[in-house]
Design goal:
The chain has 316 residues and is an alpha/beta fold. It is built from 12 helices and 11 strands. The chain has a 6-stranded mixed beta sheet, sandwiched between helices. The chain has a 5-stranded mixed beta sheet with strand order 7-6-8-5-9, sandwiched between helices. β1, α3 and β2 form a beta-alpha-beta unit.
């Protein structure tokens, strides 16, 4: 075992300050909590995290201050929180990209499994496989079969992102020629499929465009059906091997006391399960997807391994 400063302090605390530690756990929280958001203000992750914080602070009895730390696809903030004191006063609202997509591709300066303890998951946007309403492809299977006889282009929010890697896995499994066209953000990929510049797009935030009849939803990349479109299959329901769930969850630095983790999990889960939060998320066009800390940790581990395997096949 590597003996770090954190390890040493923890051992000393365990020997010398057991009564004080027990008192601190019972008294937690006794000052404001910082919830770091690894993206800029105004995005869906930021807005949902702020609502979560506003509601949870009423349960915990202390303010929860949301702090935006954007940059490097969320990895800057993850690295900062990984090195924070594991006292329950610095948390992060993380998403798929800095938790398992980017770490599968390169060294990010932290280990999403060893350096964090998962608290709970409260959301995760569905990523749909979208085609224009007049597309000849009316099912996911038809799209893949079409890509076996000629190239099918699809747009995503960027190269080597989760959606790109997911369809790279589909192409490898099926032998289909699925040609990736990266865009600078999901909005531009959506505009491209609406304009007929690509055959399909893999993007979130598609509900209104599908309901208005501008786009057709062939399926979702995630391991659960979108409740707004229950007939749209998951990849496994379409006969494929893998699924790629998105997460929006809350984590703490590794070493945070289990009693504190349990208290935070209970508070945040109470918020996520409430009608008020469900209404808020519906208005935000975001799903509520609750997972325990244990299940969130397993999801991160499984997807980290899956994306590493896909990345190997792409030469990364």
């Amino acid at each position: 075992m590597t003996f770090t400063r954190r390890t040493g302090l923890a051992l000393l605390a365990g020997v010398a300050f057991v009564p004080f530690a027990a008192m601190a756990q019972e008294d937690y929280p006794n000052r404001p909590i910082t919830l770091v958001v690894p993206y800029g203000a105004g995005g869906t992750t930021d807005v949902s995290a702020r609502q979560m914080a506003t509601m949870a602070e009423k349960i915990l009895g202390q303010p929860i201050v949301v702090e935006n730390q954007p940059g490097a696809s969320g990895t800057n903030a993850m690295r900062a929180v990984a090195s924070a004191e594991p006292d329950g006063y610095t948390l992060i609202a993380t998403t798929s990209s800095p938790s398992f997509v980017t770490p599968a591709l390169r060294d990010v300066g932290y280990d999403p499994l060893a350096d964090f303890t998962a608290i709970m998951n409260y959301s995760g946007p569905f990523h749909g496989v979208l085609v224009p309403a007049d597309s000849p492809y009316d099912t996911l299977d038809a799209l893949i079969e079409g890509a076996k006889s000629g190239a099918v282009t699809y747009g995503t929010a960027g190269a080597m992102g989760g959606a790109h890697l997911a369809f790279a896995s589909v192409a490898r499994e099926t032998g289909a020629t699925l040609q990736h066209v990266p865009f600078d953000g999901a909005a531009k990929a959506t505009a491209a499929v609406l304009g007929g510049h690509v055959n399909a797009a893999l993007v979130p935030a598609y509900r209104d465009l599908v309901k208005d009849g501008q786009l057709r939803l062939l399926g979702v990349l995630d391991g659960a059906n979108d409740p707004d479109f229950p007939d749209a299959p998951t990849l496994k329901e379409a006969g494929l091997a893998a699924e790629f769930p998105s997460i929006v969850g809350i984590m703490a630095p590794d070493g945070t006391d289990p009693a504190i983790i349990a208290k935070l999990e209970a508070a945040f889960t109470e918020v996520a399960a409430s009608d008020e939060f469900a209404t808020f998320m519906t208005d935000l066009s975001q799903p509520v997807r609750i997972m325990s800390g244990e299940d969130l940790g397993k999801t991160i581990a499984e997807n980290l391994n899956a994306y590493r395997e896909i990345a190997k096949g792409l030469g990364n």
